[in-house]
Amino acid sequence: MDSRRAIRTVLNEARGLTFQVMKAPWGGLTLRAYLAGEEVGHVTTETLDDTKSHLGNLFVKPAHRGRGYGTLLAQKAAQSLKEWGVKTVEADVTSQKSYRALVSAFGTPSATAFESIDEIPATSYHEVDGEGKPGDGWAVSWNLQ
Predict the structure, then answer these.
(1) CB-based contact 72:12 (threshold 8 Å)
(2) What InterPro entries does UniProt report for this protein, alphabetically (predicted)?
(3) Residue 87: phi, psi to the nearest 5?
(4) Cα–Cα distances in Å, from 19 out to 26, 27, 94, 124?
(5) Rounded to an integer, what distance in angstroms lies between the CA atom of residue 38 and that of residue 26?
(6) What domains, with CATH codes, occur in the chain?
(7) Contact between residue 82 and residue 64 where contact means Cβ atoms under 8 Å apart
(8) pLDDT tens per residue across span 10-44
């Protein structure tokens, strides 16, 4: 076990989280995090092909935000995807905060749809375009090692 994995294990135990990983009917995965038996968040992915997945929905309940659970969910998803042979993960980010959480989980992106993080709004949870519709976000891609 490498030192980074050992640190993640300690952090998970220290925070008391347990995880449930399931293959989703659409071919991706659904991963749920629980604290003392209560679901605190989840992440879903969609399989694009044998080696590529899209991170579709990463959600932490409002009462549990700001504790690093989103990053831990993304890290656990990355670990599970690697075990299933996925080599590339794509995601759409809607804020600098969500981007930073994903970078903490997946590392430096291999490709982005922006030249500078400054192009992404700083802390908005859901971005809204001029017509009041949710924004699409900025595409980001990671190669899993």
Answers:
(1) yes
(2) Acyl_CoA_acyltransferase, GNAT_dom
(3) -110, -20
(4) 20, 19, 25, 27
(5) 25
(6) 3-143 (3.40.630.30)
(7) no
(8) 345 446 888 998 888 878 889 999 998 899 999 99
